[in-house]
């Protein structure tokens, strides 16, 4: 029987011409590094290729790709363009930390970010002993309401004078998770 980790490391979802996959070998490492080095990815710095590869393999990494078949091609293998990412740092049992959520600005407004987070949520729902999923965000205006709505997250701590919002959602393994599927505070 395959472990939860093995099942989740080989997942994919399709919608129209888009693919979300947790296969770390699909990531175009040089392009991912370019993204990490862009202004759109303001919360992180790029790392060397070897470190990026290790980071993506060590996490549950969700890549978002647009797949197209080139015109006049005799090969039916689609070309994949990397357009998004989300990473769960997790032990696959009790803990997950969501980070590096990004959709290429040319593809925003098409529901791909929502779909990406729904896929992340589907993956965390397969972890029956998960106590919590956490994240940090500096984008109070867009991200906080986005994660509240899609994942049922709440702001745990508000730093004085602004700063990062620390958010969490309790999982099925948390003692305050109700048998009816709702989170309850102690």
Automatic annotation (TrEMBL):
Coiled coil: none annotated. Transmembrane segments: none annotated. Residues 31-172 form the N-acetyltransferase domain. InterPro entries: Acetyltransferase_Butenolide, Acyl_CoA_acyltransferase, GNAT_dom. It comes from the Eukaryota. It holds the Pfam family Acetyltransf_1. One of its GO terms (molecular function) is acyltransferase activity, transferring groups other than amino-acyl groups. This is N-acetyltransferase domain-containing protein.
